[in-house]
Design goal:
Helix content: 40-55%
Distance between the termini: 22 Å
Bound molecules: 2-deoxy-6-O-phosphono-alpha-D-glucopyranose
Number of helices: 33
Strand order of the largest sheet: 7-10-11-4-1-12-13-17-18
Length: about 800
Amino acid sequence: MNQTTPVHPALRDQILHHLTYTVGKDADHAQLSDWRFALSHALRDRIVDAWMSATRQTYKADAKRVYYLSMEFLIGRLLEDGLNNLGLADEARAALSDMGLDPEAVLHDEPDAALGNGGLGRLAACFMESLATLGVPAYGYGIRYEHGLFRQSFADGRQMEAPETWLDQPHVWEFERPEARFTLGFGGDVTTRDGKTVWQPTEMVQAEAFDTPMAGWKGRWVNTLRLWAGRAVDPFDLERFNRGDFAAASEGEALARTISRVLYPEDSTEIGKALRLKQEYFFSAASIRDILRRFEADHGDLTALPSKVAIQLNDTHPAIAGPELIRILHDERGIAFDDAMHIAQNTVNYTNHTLLPEALESWDEGLFGRLLPRHLQIIDRIDDAHAKAHPKRTVTAREHGQVKMGELSFILANRVNGVSALHTGLMKTTVFKDLHALHPEKIVNQTNGVTPRRWLNACNPALSGLISDTIGTGWIGDLEQLATLEPHMDDAWLERFRAAKRTNKTALADFVREQLGMTLNTDAMFDVQIKRMHEYKRQHLNILEAIALWQEMRDAPDAGWTPRVKIFAGKAAPGYFFAKDIIGLINDAAAVINADPLTRDMLQVVFLPNYNVTLAERLIPAADLSEQISTAGKEASGTGNMKFALNGAPTVGTLDGANVEIRERVGAENFFLFGMEAHEVDARRAIPDHAAQAIAADPRLARALRAVSDGTFSKDEPNRYAGIVENLSGPDYFLVCSDFTDYWRAQREADATYLDAKHWSTMAALNVARSGWFSSDRTIRGYVADIWKASSLL
Ligand code: D6G
């Protein structure tokens, strides 16, 4: 085997080569997408060299491998990221321009792979990039959804959903692996034969692997993202076809493909519960088989598994991987149950992402037992073994007719981690209180992080250029170096910093003009809230404040207001009607406010449709103010909050999730804090008329709510938002009203600060310089040392 890295021809020649021989097009007649494919192939060739070398090194070193199991990988576009990581961005742009093409048009032709709902999925993607940057042998395992998160548009301000179709053109990054297929089963019976338990499933489906290389910084290491697609075991029924029953002949294929057809919206809905459980088992079971196949190729003794394999469950969606591993070890390899459980417990780890009771997964045991009868038995044996080891235990994985995936994961995991200091602390005192008392060593914290390659270096060339001019480029691979910016922040430097922000705001304004035909005031403060729509994230608090501000501006238009542009983006789960109403309200309020000649120069409200990674890459660099306003105790960490701080947008926020750590690091004076703290929230909620009291105490809030309920923003249907108003004046579980007054105060403090350009830009620049700790490289180092006990091969 040739171990040397081949020398590549100039990128330009390689692009032309691939255009001809891979894409099969003549340069004179090639379309934009043809050029994009050709460039992607040219880049891919170089990534593949590093990939092969990483594969060889991992096998040779017999290194411990990390397996990151996640239902979601929100990877976004890969071309620009790959060019940046391999140091080819300039050469690629020059080559494209030289051939008469617009480089940005070529790069932006790539569809955004939206294989995730939000933060959890994007975290998995940042982790893959950091694992590769750090040279840790690692695999991401997930599902190759044919349709990622739906495409969002608005009709009369209401959310419309259309299927997302990233695979309707060739996906150049992936390699199909027809040799890596596993047949998996559902349903059937469990019987005993010759003293052995045998599960005989009745419904079979195949999982087929598709590999995407994940390149780290400078392309020094490349790992694999292996996504599973559903296939029929017998894709085509010739007998039925010959009988003329053409549709039925392919029925098996259609049913099997259903399993990897769509990404489910994370929140709420009951719809498709069984299919979702099937998806979870499908990708977890295929991954476990693949992991064991790889391990057993070189090792005979399965008790050594924990020394060579670390499995991370990204939330409970892959939790069934634990019982599946035990099932294979015990039923199929003949290892005693307790030993099998011991091996699994030393291999599997679990990341908890939410304390919201409705988001902690549990399955009806009837449904669970019908699909996975053997696993239900194994879960009972896990509970029994746990009870034997801890006679005082009160918590079980199966209880009240439910299989509880959080408890199951906790009991089976070697380490259980939270994703911010606050969240980890709350895990110990709330959801996992009893289990924590039994296993005080299990819970550890790993505060989330973001990859600085994508989320500063690539997405914000104006700012990253200034940073590199000032302190060199070492920060891209070692983000803590941003701290060395501080001594450089004199007036001249701050002026350059402001210019970078202005460049980004102008670019965003151009984009908004193209998309919505609306002209934004780029002198105004760009105030941005982008994330999934959810009551706990409180986009309704933000729009109520905007409405109140508009009303006050109308009262006194000449009072010296700080001009603002309020920017929203985010999708609501299709079945989450309240969240969809909030979108409607924001759009309706925007239409009225933006049309008001009295306030037009001072306040604009924009809701950009179809929020995704690509849109975030445009919005975050252009933001002045970052809205992180969840009810304290509800947002486990957040990662958007880190991206904003890193790109020079101070936060207006509550003490929730990683906001707490951001504030500690950037300094309290560089953060607009408001609202109740987590420990105050329950007491407030216990006051029967807390919302009514808050409304009575704040005439601004009362007036804003009145405008929503009297149809000011929905003249054709005055009652349209009665549901929102009723909720907020009644139960108001997320305490929008109780936090409103302090939010208003913090916003006016931000206004006053913004008017002093030097003060504001100092705050913003200090947010950048002090955000180095929020690199996902730091997070991954933490997982490697505290949880996986793996090492870098670089
Ligand atoms: C990845 C990387 C590639 C390797 C393939 C199969 O696609 O180099 O050959 O995985 O590797 P194993 O699954 O056999 O380790």
